Amino acid sequence: MQGHFFSKYIPDPGAGDPFQRLLDLFLQLMQYTNGDVAEALDWLTQLDAQNNLTGEAYGMGNFIQDLKDKGYIKENPLNGDFVPTGKTNQSIRKKSLEEIFGKLKKSPRGNHRTQVTGQGDELNSDTRKFTFGDSIDQIDMTASLHNAQVNHGIEHFNLTESDLEIKERDYNAQTSTVLMIDISHSMILYGEDRITPAKKVAMALAELIKTKYPKDTLDIIVFGNDAWPVELKDLPYLQVGPYHTNTYSGLELALDLLRKRRHANKQIFMITDGKPTCLKEGAGYYQNSFGLDKKIINKTLTMAVQARRVGVCITTFMIASDPYLQKFVRDFTKLNNGRAYYSSLNGLGNYIFEDFEKNRRKNLK
To answer: Which residue, 272, 249, 247, 259, is CA-closest to 217?
Structure first.
């Protein structure tokens, strides 16, 4: 019989910096408390009492003071409450990126390499003969001088156009991405937390783009009964609401945002765990949570077609295994000529980043 054995956690008092150990826990707790610093510190104090996270030399009071001194929290001048700073929000995104995708160095250019050669930014190992219009800085001088010696001899050096060789460069494709996150009530139903992994993936993707592809753009929107954009600083603290799933409004907003972007490559990543169940009609809503409502499904499928017509690829990450939901996703994907993944919570990040990296290497149109 297989199972798991649990024992009391006994921390090593000499392992690492005590502030850093507590900071890692604090950043995790901040996501579960939706940015409530006081609640996160209260939980951390309880964990300390149960597991002896601190000692006589460094206590919770020292940790709170260090959080203030190092710029992770600050006091609200109106009521004196602690609030997180931008440094805290960036640290949470960075932790998510390292957890899901490993440590990445910042790219000085901020572009995606493609398999197409030409007057791009990144040199590769391929060479070819010079043609009119090539840039001078692409000339391989060593190879060109060698050609001149072979073709004309050493005694009478002569470098002609036919001797010149060019180093190929890779085009770099800049991309605009919209990430859609389902925040309907089903994302926390059935004893399974689906919103936290979705938030972590969104934070990691945002940090990846900011550090490695700064010339790309990323918009993040959430959708429930309605759809609206969220700012990067609010991403760690997203909450699920008592909402149905208005996929149509989410896609409509995503396409509106992409129309304003100048990059030729545009795409939508959609993370959801259920079927469309809601439409906005005037000041009210048309809702049906039972089965696949034809009225809702057909309008949603029209958005897949509309996105395909303007060259926007939609990749759907379905956190569900119901056969009838998978059929809807297959139909949706076929109409958009997009991609679909039926992902577990553990594999969500790997799927998204593999797809993101792979498809930056070609023109999405």
So the answer is: 259
Q: Please check whether residue 120 is in contact with residue 169, taking contact to mean a CB–CB distance below 8 angstroms.
A: yes
DSSP state of 236: G
The torsion region of residue 346 among left (phi > 0), alpha (psi -120 to 50) and beta comes to alpha
Domain 175-359 in this protein, CATH class: alpha beta
Q: What tens digit of pLDDT does each residue of 243-292 get?
A: 999 999 999 999 999 999 988 889 998 888 878 999 999 899 999 988 88
Please say whether the beta carbons of 253 and 221 come within 8 A. yes
Helices (H), the chain: 18-32, 37-51, 60-69, 86-101, 141-152, 195-212, 247-259, 294-309, 323-336, 348-359
Torsion of CA 105, 353, 124, 262, to 10 degrees: -90
Radius of gyration of the chain (CA): 26
Tell me the three state secondary structure of residue 1.
coil
- Hey, which of 117-126, 147-156, 194-203, 279-288 has the most confident mean pLDDT? 279-288
Run of H or E including 116: strand 113-118
Per-residue pLDDT at 346: 63
Burial class (CB in 10 A: 0-12, 13-18, 19+), 90: middle
Neighbours of 200 (CB within 10 A): 23
